[in-house]
Amino acid sequence: MPDTAPVLRHIEETFAQSVARLQDLLRFPSVGVDPRHEADTKACARWLADRLAEIGMEASVRPTEGMPMVVAHDRSAPEGAPHLLYYGHYDVQPADPIELWETPPFEPTIVEGPRGPRVVARGAVDDKGQIMTFIEAMRAWKAVHGALPVRVTIFLEGEEEASSRSLEPFLLANRDELRADVCVISDTGMLDVDRPAITYMLRGLAYAEVTLHGPSHDLHSGMYGGAVVNPINALCRILAELHDDEGRVQIPGFYDDVREIAPEEAEAWRNIGFDEAAFLAGAGLRSSTGEAGRSVLERVWSRPTCDINGIWGGYTGEGSKTIIASKASAKLSCRLVPDQDPARIMAALKRFFAARTPAGCRLDFVDMGVGGAIRVPTDSPFLDAAKQAAHEVFGVAPVLIGCGGSIPVVAAVKRILGLDTLLVGFGLDDDRVHSPNEKFELVCYRRGIETHAAMLGRFADVRA
Amino acid sequence: MPDTAPVLRHIEETFAQSVARLQDLLRFPSVGVDPRHEADTKACARWLADRLAEIGMEASVRPTEGMPMVVAHDRSAPEGAPHLLYYGHYDVQPADPIELWETPPFEPTIVEGPRGPRVVARGAVDDKGQIMTFIEAMRAWKAVHGALPVRVTIFLEGEEEASSRSLEPFLLANRDELRADVCVISDTGMLDVDRPAITYMLRGLAYAEVTLHGPSHDLHSGMYGGAVVNPINALCRILAELHDDEGRVQIPGFYDDVREIAPEEAEAWRNIGFDEAAFLAGAGLRSSTGEAGRSVLERVWSRPTCDINGIWGGYTGEGSKTIIASKASAKLSCRLVPDQDPARIMAALKRFFAARTPAGCRLDFVDMGVGGAIRVPTDSPFLDAAKQAAHEVFGVAPVLIGCGGSIPVVAAVKRILGLDTLLVGFGLDDDRVHSPNEKFELVCYRRGIETHAAMLGRFADVRA
C-alpha cells in the first residue's frame, strides 16, 4: 500500500490553505439556474479547471448547451492502477430568501459554532465544500508523492440544481473518455460529526404536474354553484385518494415491486442510533406521519411515497371571492425505492388521475421526469477500501445508511457508463442545504479531505 | 297614473348619453377590496354623488370605516307618494386574471355581439350597469316632468364585493333616514333578453378561509418524505370529505333546516322554459354536476352547496421543486337556502375541519362572513306594479325566479329597516359576472332604464 501517513500529515499542516481555497471557490455566485449568474457560473468552472491544472491534471472546461462541464484527467499513477471517476457539481441553489442570511451568501465567513469553526456560505456543503474534499486530498498526494496512487478522472457539472439537463447528453457523447472502474461522489452526509457513513440506498423520483380543466372560465359560485363541476373540489377528491387511512399509497400496482428490507438490514438500522426526536425537531414536528407500522428510517430510506409539492387554483388573494375556478393544478412526486420501475409508476400515476377525472373535466398530465432508485452493491472491494479509510480517519467504522433523496447522476452513470457509485459524503443533517445560512463544519471538511486521501491510498490495492 | 310615455320616448332619444355616462362610471377601477384602489373607489363614489346632485337630488358621500356610502334623497314627488329605497353597489370584483381580458377591464368598450352592441368592462353589469338603469330612469323623469312621481332615497355601497363590512353599522346608524316603504335592487337577472324576471329567492352565504400548518419550514421531500405530515395532502383529504359520492354536503347537520320546495313551485319552475343546455354552454360545459336526483334549477335555486373558491400551497412556479410545504390554504363557501342558520353552518364547518385536522398540523380557520338566504313575499302591491311595468316594456309578463347568488343587503334591510325588497334585474346568465370580459348587453341596459321608468310611474299609484 502506498504511504498515506505523510499525506495525512501534510493535510494537517496545510489545512489553512485548503480552507482559503474553499473560500475562494465559495465567492463565485454560481447560481447556474439563474441567467443573471451565467458569467459567474462559467468563471467558477474556469477557476476549478485552473486549480486542477495547477496540481498537474489535464483539465478543461467543456461547453454544453447549458453550463459547462469541468473534466480533468490524472495519469500520474502507476500502470495498471485502478481508475476512479469523481463526480461533483459546482453550481449552487439560489440564495433566496436573501434577507434571512446572517452573513452575505457569497462572502464565505468563518463562524465559531458548537463543533468549532464552520464556513457559512451558499454552496458551503452542497456541493462545493464536498468536491474540495477530494480535490484537496489529491493536491496533498501530489505535493507529498508527486503522483496519485490511482488513475483519476474528475467531472464536475454546473446544472445539478437545474435538473442536470446537459448531463446525460454529455455522458453519452464522452462515454469512452469517462469510463473507469467505479464512480465516487461526495454529496451525502454522516450520522454526526464523529460518525462517518457510506450511503448505499437512494430513492428515485417520478414528478408530475396535473391540471383539471372544468368550466371555460371562472364562474360566479352563486349563479352556478351546486350545478357544475368545481375543478378544485374534483382535484382534491382525486388527491385525497392517493393514500388510504394507513398512509399507504393507493396507486394500483405501486407496491408490486417493492421489497421488504432484509432482517439483518432492519437490525443494522435499529442499531445506528438514529435520533428520531431530533430529526423531527429539525422540521418543527413532534410526531412522525406515514405508512403505519414503519419506523422513521424505514419510511424515509426504504419506502416509496407520494407527496403533493404544490397546489393552486381559483382565488388566492386577500379577502373573499365567490368563484368556481375554471381549473386547478398540482405538482406531485413519488419517491421510489429499488426495483420500482419509474416509467411504470409514472404511467400508473397518469392512469390513476385519468380514471378519476370526472365528467365535465379534462385532465392535463405532464411527466416532469423520472429517475430510478439506487442500491449500491455492498460487497465491492472499493466499498471495503472506503470503509477502511474512513475507519482509519475517524477511529470508528462507518455505517451503511440510506438516503431519502435522489442523486440522478448515480443512475445515469450506471446506465451510460456501466459504473457503480460509492457515496461517501461529509455533510450533517443541520447544514441547511438549500436554506439560508448554509454551512460546512471545518472539522467535517478536514476529515473529508483526510478520508479521501486515505481512500486514494487504499483504492490502489484494489484488484478488480 | 303619471304619464310615463314621454319619459320612455326621452329615454330612447337620449340613450347614447346614458351609454356614455355608464362608460364614465366603468372607467373607475373601484376594486374596493384592494387597498391599492382605495382612491379610485372613493373617486367613484364622488362621481356618483355628483351625478345624483346634477339631477336635483340631495346627494352626499358618507364616510364609513371602509369605503364610503353614497346617499341621495329626492323629495320632488307629490306629498303622500310612496317612498322607495334604491340600493346598489359601485365597487367591483378584481379584474384578475387580467391576461384573459380581450379589452382592458377599465376601458369600457362597445363590442358587437349576437344581440347587438354590448359594453365590456369589469362591473359592466355587476353592479354599475344595473345601478345606472334606475339612475338614468330618474334622470329621464326629471328631464321630462321636472320631478319624480314617487319619493326616492338611494344608497350605494362600495364594499359589496368585500363582504359589505360597513353596511350593517351604516343601516343601524341611519335607520330613520333610510326608512321607506319598500327597497328596490337591480342586481339580478332575466331569463333571456326578451324575458324579464323578478327574483323572489336568493341563497345565503357562509365564507371561510382555512390554513393547515405543518412543518416549521418547507422541507426537502427526499430527506423527509414519507415520515412527516404533508399539509397539502392533509388539506386535500379534508376537502375531499366535504361531499359524498352523490354530491351531498357531508358537514354534520348541514341539511337539518333545508325544506323541499312546494309542489306548485316545482311545477312553476318546470314551466319557466329554462334552457339547461344553454345555461351549461354559457359555462363551457355539456353536463351538470351536483346533488343526485335534482334538476339544474333546483340545484342552483333551492339547494345549499359547498364550493372551494381557491386553494394554494407549496411550489407553484415553473418546473419541479421537491418540497413538502410548511402549510396549505383554501378559501371555501357554502351557499345557503331559506331556514338554514348561517352562523350555525359556519360553526359546523369549523368543527368539520377541527375534527379532521391530523396530528402534526395546526388549523387556522377564519370566518370571512355569513348572510342568510332570502324569500321575498310574492303578494305585495309593489311587486304587482313592477310586474305590470316590466310587462309594458317587454310585451310579456315577467316570471318569478330564484337566484343562486347572495345579496346580503336584502336580509339586513329587512332586519334593520323592516323593509321587503323587490329584486328586478336586467343581467343575463352569460354576462361573465366576476369573470374576465364581463359585459352588459346595451339592449338590456335600455330595457332596464325603461322598466325602471315605468315602475316609477306605477309605484306612484300604490297605496300601501
UniProtKB/TrEMBL annotation, chains A, B:
SUPFAM superfamilies for this protein: Zn-dependent exopeptidases (SSF53187)
Pfam families to which the protein is assigned, alphabetical: M20_dimer (PF07687), Peptidase_M20 (PF01546)
Listed Gene3D superfamilies: 3.30.70.360, Zn peptidases
Entry GO MF terms: dipeptidase activity
InterPro entries: Cyt/Met_Dipeptidase, Peptidase_M20, Peptidase_M20_dimer
Keywords: Dipeptidase, Hydrolase, Metal-binding, Protease
EC assignment: 3.4.13.-
Domain Peptidase M20 dimerisation residues, every copy: 201-359
Protein's name in the database: Dipeptidase
Source species: Benzoatithermus flavus
